[in-house]
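Raw record, unedited: Citrate transporter-like domain-containing protein
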Amino acid sequence: MAIVAAVLVVVTLVAMTSGRVPAVLALIVALLVAGVIGIATPAQLFAGLSNSGVITIAAMLVIAKGVLSTGVVSRVTFRLLSTATSPTRMLVRLIPPVGLISSLINTTPIVAMLIPATKEVQQRAGIPARSVLLPVAHATTLAGSTTLIGTSSNLIIAGFAASAGVNLSMFSFVPIALPVALVGWLAVILLSRRLLKGRPRHKERALTWRAEIPVSGKAVGIGRTATQIGMHKTAEFELIEIRRWGQPVALDSPIEGGDLMVYRATELGVRMLWASPRFGLAPLHLFAVTIGTENPGSVRDLQDDEDLLVVAAETRHRFRDTPAEPGTVCYVSVASSAVLEKHEFVSLWQNVAGKAPQPGKTWLAMGILVGVIVAASFSLVDVALAAGCGATLMVLGGVLTPRSAVRALDWNILAIIAGSIGLGVIVVESGLAEHISDAILSLGSGNIPLMIAVLAVGTTVLTNCVTNAAAASILTPVALTIASSADLSPVLLLTLIGTCISFTFVNPYSHQSNLMVMEPGQYTTRTFVRFGVPITLICLVTVFLVAWPLVTYWG
């Protein structure tokens, strides 16, 4: 049965790696085949659907969405980078705080928030995003491995360990993962100077749109000038007027609540202005609408409906002086598309952005996150229960709407994680885990350093070929078997695996963050290999030097 299971696992991994078959489909087929031939029961194979690790991951996705919806990451990022003058200084300022956040919530939305921030710095200061995005993506991945909730693979490892009677706490991964993360951060900073050189490619874009952005009374930019908050001029927009009580004021005047910020912008610039948390915009959606009927009035007349606000139009004139001709495209903010359905002048519309960031909820969102971390760290409640309560409070506290919370759940990722847990069940129930561990023990012949090296290299190779969830599910049972047979600490061996699973530096398809920065940073697969191989080697040497004495003397 072990041979059949090995063939099934290898075929599944190859299918997932090839990209020709959706990973979820490959995993489902594998679980069904395993059930039909009797490797494990259906309850065992599909236990991932109710696994506490999967539940925790789902809840943490909601919590992360709540924190990021306040715009706190972009505000902190601007303050860190507003005076940066080189890629190295930018990385030195950015990596530690972003790394700290990455150890507490899912790294993917953090990277998503950093992409526009680095592009903004590229436009303002000429620092190429190419020199920053990939190092930051790798740094967040390394930081995520330092805590139980920082990455999904650690939660999967903890779930398997709990079923074997091994308890992993919030900071069980720190002794090995933290030193490796610090060395890895230093490596990405130093190597990026030599291997990721480049100049930003600017395309001259005409600022043909006029955007009028109202400032809320609770906006974080109040009391500072547009220049001080980084909203004066970039390649995508330029402030041309500030109107206060209908009258223009100097562009260097401190911003007040009720001001109207008028910009010339590109279409992308309109969306960037909308997404900024510095103006405290109302929690409405941004829609691109097309005027479809003859209307003798102006674009401003669209606002006759009090539930609609015109944000931008392709014009150099005031909205009241811009004819609302059929085919004219405008950006408007409304609570829902229902307002547009009944609007007499609107024929087509498209939701182009979610709700504007709501900085007023920042302290509540951060308080919920801290509460979850404290409860889980001191074992006040189970980590899954703590995360679930935190996600619920995000909704009850008004940080997220119920619909936004549901949208925060990435069902594809959750399905892959649940299916990967079933793949681990196949490895255990078929006896394949014992055969692999026996081979490693035989190869090591009692030599602890050699066993550590084999586990570290094997984990690194596997995680760069398949998803980190699959690597965790396959290797955790192997590590538990080795720990039992060689009388070593299972916690340290699992920590070793959890740390090495974060070494997804070579293959751009091995981690979601890699794919996210690939196009904005203008990277190729060759770039990943050239930059990732030396970082991987440095991290492997570091993890070996850290784990060897720990496993030898405290194992």
